[in-house]
């Protein structure tokens, strides 16, 4: 999660919503790391989770990342949660909860839907205060 927080800080410095993600294999080797690039790319799908999944899938030459674990600073939205299911990630560890836009413990609760064919292990609230503080500070400075 420390690396994901580094990515989130880089996003904030670039004027992006500070969300960072790191994808690691079962041995803990980093497969990919990314932060939000929505503003820079003018792409509403350029979320940290999707960018990390895309990078790892291309690097490994596989759309299935069954042994991978995703560490992300914010609860994934419904779009990212569905991509996590499609990639067959083994585990998702996220920091701050997102009552407005989350898709795992809030909102669509993608992994609880009967039509979702893959449900990763999910750990929420890991280093929550660190992750939430980064987001709170970012938005406070914007308002």
Structure commentary:
With 143 residues, the protein is an alpha/beta fold. The chain contains five helices and five strands, in the order H-E-E-H-H-E-H-E-E-H. A five-stranded mixed sheet has the order 2-1-3-4-5. A hairpin with a 5-residue loop joins strand 1 and strand 2. The longest helix is centred in the C-terminal third of the chain and has 15 residues, at 128-142. The chain is globular and about 40 Å long. The mean pLDDT is 97.
Largest beta sheet: what is the strand line-up?
2-1-3-4-5
Our Rg estimate from Cα atoms comes to 14 Å
Please tell me what the overall shape is.
Answer: globular
Q: Ranges with pLDDT <50 over ≥5 residues? A: none
N-end to C-end Cα span: 27 Å
- Which class best fits the helix and strand makeup? alpha/beta
Helix content: 25-40%
Provide a compact summary of the structure:
This protein has helices spanning 2-13, 38-41, 48-60, 78-87, 128-142, and strands spanning 20-24, 30-35, 69-74, 91-96, 121-123. It has 143 residues and is of the alpha/beta class.
């Amino acid at each position: 999660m420390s690396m994901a927080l580094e990515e989130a800080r880089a996003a904030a410095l670039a004027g992006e919503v500070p969300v960072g993600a790191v994808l690691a294999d079962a041995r803990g080797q980093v497969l990919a790391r990314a932060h939000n690039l929505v503003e820079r790319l003018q792409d509403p799908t350029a979320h940290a989770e999707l960018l990390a999944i895309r990078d790892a899938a291309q690097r490994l030459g596989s759309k299935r990342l069954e042994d991978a674990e995703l560490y992300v600073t914010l609860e994934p939205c419904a779009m990212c949660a569905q991509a996590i299911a499609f990639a067959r990630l083994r585990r998702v560890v996220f920091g701050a909860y997102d009552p407005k836009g989350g898709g795992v413990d809030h909102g669509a609760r993608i992994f609880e839907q009967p039509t979702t064919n893959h449900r990763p292990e999910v750990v929420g609230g890991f280093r929550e205060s660190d992750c939430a503080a980064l987001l709170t500070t970012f938005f406070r400075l914007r308002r």
